[in-house]
Design goal:
The chain is of the alpha/beta class. It contains 27 helices and 24 strands. Among the domains are: 209 residues, Alpha-Beta Complex (Spore Coat Polysaccharide Biosynthesis Protein SpsA, Chain A); 106 residues, no CATH class; 186 residues, CDP-glycerol glycerophosphotransferase, C-terminal domain (Rossmann fold).
């Protein structure tokens, strides 16, 4: 540090704020006033907060990481920071807020000008989900000048109007010796700032103000602890008891009782009128206790406020809950009118369906019904399909229904009920189903009912910008209503994530109060269970010649192009690679008219070119089967690369328009700087990667290993099981199948391979708390009795021995050494292939587990990224499961 005693000790408690914590820490460490220590307290957070703090501490010696052994709450976490602080002044900052640039220097200068006061009060701005900052509406109370006799340093008696400011700890700097001398500490429970702030202001002999916004206070849309429904809001009474006891113990401060009493009434009124803040069962108790506090602490002779506030005061005093609510209701002006979506429907039919839906909403929920959908009703696909299949296996007592349009009805497996969008049965199911699962959002007309459980699976790891990050991307956000998007996000109870990068992105761009489930990608489970015979059957089905290296070409959609423009001359590439290669072409489903992602046979095995071998597989919707059949993946910026990486087969990135794509859509990291394999910028470069064998050489394997460690930590073939057991069966997270480490996984073998195992690097095991890393097959658990009874023949019937087929990766083949050409035709290619085989001789099962210091899974990000952030996440830490996406 710059000095033995730093000027500031900035204390940041962190609990379930991982999407914002990196920005918070950076806002402190990037201040132009560097004489500080940052004490970051991990309040036993179940998400990645602890890892983010440790990473910051490794990069900056001013950061002191504190990890609490158990969750203590915001107040006690701050106390832990106070005990370790050595600075002249204490500054508190919540883990989801930030310091404005230049704030600490402005605070330091003001402290010097005002003679080192015991407390300095500064201003803040609220930042909403749009990023707009609005300054505190009572900023005029912080005027500094002295033209009208306003004192530079004062006691609260001289400026009592400061009590009208927000009574929080984080808008002040406190002299540490003053705090220690007075013995100030934060209490447990909600509203812990109340028994801290009032005594501090009442006691301080010297107070100064700074008329400047120093804190950007993040106004959470949903999920902030003081905005959630909880009995803990009753803690407010205990907190005011503490303040009044403080005054009782200090007779010289007794004159503050009337002011404190009025602030208490205002505070209780806010809680009483806030919608959904108090559970129904706690409302009567709240009003009883409010009345008791009013009678206990009302100063003798205290004036009753005029007008409607008088009635509120009297009703609180009497504990008259129903009368208070009636008065509150009289203040409202109800606005709005019912709107019906009539496009494509006859008016009477639309009205009849709407009335039918309203009636169904009045009926009880069906606890045994689960409704699934994917890709805007385009068939049985993606994570919802994998989860639905696992529900039928583990919870056969549940009934499943799938929403899809008629042209994709054939994709549904036997026994799954079909729901046509917009039908009466569809609206009935949405109104009454206990479980709702989708990888996009349900219709905005759906009303989420209490007791319904909505699982949002998403449909891939995000490379491109998503959600609220599209607000400044007009090409990608055409027609998007962000307000409506957030209303749909508010319906989510669970959000599925495959890695830490995804978790950080989802929680930031889809802000709400859902629970994140970092369980992996259910649709990729098949990669760990498919056998060599399964791969052979798929290749035969697609018409891939025996011994041919199958390369799946799967480009993504371009938002900046109105029409699909081929990025690659597939026929030319196929001719250049020769007869030993087969190119499987699968364009983005946005550009496959008439074909959806749920399945369909049109186009499968259709030969497009005569000179080379190019197969059109655009009509096959189960992309997982295409991945299994392919020996390598060729893509640009499609999220399929994150799925395919689980197969541990070669991946090539063709980034011919990377700069244009990134400018139009926006991306979270540079895929050309941290790719899963070799990168080409032109068609000739792409051909050269294959003709030289670089597509599958040692460097390709090393890039893939680092990529897998970063993005595939939980994809061990048990993601769907974890989801079903947690969401549908209600099992505790410590009972869920522990994650199999990367080094111990055996994905489905590629068809064209060598007897040796593929090139692998050791990886740090990913653990789930509190269970150990699994090194042996998990014991099969049965569903609870309520859903256990299965019809005869239900469930998966594949024998256990079907999983014991030998595993291996793709052989590194150049056109000269492909199965259709003599192996000795190219000495250079032979040398490359030999090098690859040599580096693959060690069996992955025998590989030692590397330490975090040496494993590629823990490789540090580039030096240009000073601290980890959602834009450039570090490797996944060992994170317990699950966690909440809200602060304590």
């Amino acid at each position: 540090m710059g000095c033995a005693v730093p000027r500031f000790s900035v204390i940041v408690p962190a609990y379930e704020v991982q999407p914002y914590l990196s920005d918070c820490l950076r806002s402190v460490l990037d201040q132009d006033f560097a004489d500080l220590e940052l004490i970051a307290v991990d309040d036993h957070s179940p998400d990645a907060c602890g890892a983010i703090i440790d990473e910051a501490a490794e990069r900056d010696p001013r950061v002191r990481a504190v990890h609490l052994a158990e969750n203590a709450g915001l107040g006690r976490a701050r106390n832990a920071g106070i005990r370790r602080a050595t600075g002249d002044y204490l500054v508190f900052l919540d883990g989801d807020d930030t310091l404005a640039p230049g704030s600490l220097r402005a605070i330091a200068d003001r402290l010097v000008r005002t003679g080192e006061p015991q407390v300095l009060v500064f201003d803040y701005a609220r930042v909403d989900w749009t990023g707009e900052a609005v300054r505190n509406v009572r900023a005029e109370l912080l005027r500094e000048g002295d033209p009208e006799g306003v004192r530079q340093v004062f006691r609260l008696d001289q400026r009592p109007e400061l009590l009208r400011l927000l009574m929080v700890a984080w808008n002040k700097a406190y002299r540490r010796d003053f705090v220690r001398a007075q013995g100030f500490a934060f209490p447990p429970g909600f509203y812990e700032d109340t028994p801290w702030t009032f005594p501090v202001l009442f006691t301080a002999e010297s107070i100064a103000v700074l008329d400047r916004v120093c804190v950007h206070y993040r106004q959470r849309r949903r999920g902030g602890i003081l905005r959630t429904t909880s009995r803990h809001h009753l803690d407010v009474f205990d907190q005011y008891d503490r303040v009044f006891r403080f005054l009782d113990a200090r007779p010289e401060l007794a004159h503050w009782r009337p002011a404190l009493f009025q602030r208490m009434l205002d505070h209780l009124g806010v809680i009483a009128t806030a919608p959904d803040r108090l559970p129904v069962a706690a409302r009567a108790e709240f009003f009883r206790r409010a009345g008791a506090h009013h009678r206990r602490y009302r100063p003798y002779g205290a004036a009753t406020p005029p007008g409607r506030a008088r009635w509120r005061c009297l009703l609180l005093r009497l504990g008259a809950r129903r009368a208070f609510q009636l008065l509150r209701g009289a203040d409202r002006v109800r606005r709005g009118a019912l709107a019906l979506a009539l496009a494509g429907y006859a008016r009477l039919r639309a009205i009849a369906l709407w009335l039918h839906y309203r009636v169904q909403l009045c009926r009880p929920l069906d606890p045994g019904l689960a409704v699934f959908a994917a890709y805007w009703h385009r068939g049985y696909a993606c994570h919802p399909a994998a989860i639905e299949a696992k529900v039928r296996e583990l919870a056969p007592g549940l009934r499943t229904a799938w929403i899809t349009t008629p042209e994709y009805a054939h994709t549904l497996p036997p026994g799954v009920r079909l729901l046509h969008p917009g039908s009466a049965a569809y609206w009935t199911a949405l109104a009454r189903a206990r479980f709702l699962v989708n990888n996009v959002n349900f219709t905005p007309w759906m009303r989420k009912r209490p007791g319904q459980i909505h699982l949002q699976t998403h449909h891939g790891t995000p490379l491109k910008h998503m959600g609220l990050d599209l607000r400044d991307r007009p090409a990608a956000a055409r027609g998007m209503d962000f307000g409506e998007l957030l209303e749909r996000v508010d319906r989510w109870d669970y959000s599925l994530s495959a890695n830490r990068h995804t978790t950080l992105v989802w929680e930031r761009v889809y802000p709400s109060g859902y629970t994140t489930l970092p369980y992996g990608s259910p649709r990729d489970d098949v990669f760990q269970h498919a056998t060599e015979d399964d791969v052979a059957r798929l290749r035969a089905r697609f018409g891939i010649p025996a011994g041919s290296v199958a390369v799946l070409y799967a480009p993504t959609h371009r938002d900046y192009q109105r029409r699909s423009v081929p990025r690659l001359d597939a026929e030319r590439v196929a001719r250049a690679l020769g007869p030993g290669f087969t190119l499987l072409v699968r364009p983005h489903y946005f550009h496959a008219p008439g074909e959806g992602v749920g399945g369909g046979e049109a186009g499968i095995g259709n030969m497009v070119s005569s000179g080379g071998r190019v197969l059109d597989v655009s009509g096959h919707g189960r992309v997982e089967e295409l991945c299994l059949a392919a020996d390598a993946l060729l893509t640009d910026y499609s999220s399929i690369m994150f799925d395919y990486a689980n197969l541990d087969r070669p991946i090539v990135i063709h980034a011919d328009d990377w700069d244009a794509y990134r400018a139009a859509r926006g991306t979270y990291f540079d895929i050309t700087a941290a790719p899963p394999g070799p990168v080409s910028r032109t068609e000739d470069e792409l051909i050269a990667l294959f003709t030289t064998g670089a597509w599958c050489g040692p460097r390709s394997a090393a890039l893939r290993a680092a990529f897998r460690a970063r993005f595939c930590p939980y994809d061990d073939g048990q993601a769907a099981e974890r989801v079903v057991r947690r969401v549908f069966l209600g099992e505790r997270h410590e009972l869920l199948p522990p994650v199999v480490p990367l080094a111990e996984r055996r994905p489905a073998p590629a068809a064209v391979r060598t007897p040796a195992a593929p090139v692998r690097t050791t990886a740090v095991p990913i653990r789930t708390a509190p269970g150990p890393v699994r090194t042996a097959p998990a014991v099969v658990r049965t569903a609870p009795a309520a859903v256990r009874a299965a019809p005869a023949g239900a469930g998966h019937d594949r024998p256990a021995e079907a999983r014991t087929a030998p595993r291996g990766g793709a052989v590194c083949v150049s056109p000269a050494t492909s199965p259709a050409a003599p192996p000795a035709a190219s000495p250079a290619a032979s040398s490359t292939s030999s090098a690859s085989s040599t580096s693959s001789t060690a069996s992955p099962a025998a590989s030692p587990v590397a330490s975090p210091a040496t494993s590629p899974a823990y490789a540090q990000p580039p030096a240009s990224s000073a601290y980890p952030s959602p834009a450039c996440p570090a490797a996944d830490p060992a994170v317990p499961l699950p966690h909440r996406s809200r602060p304590h």
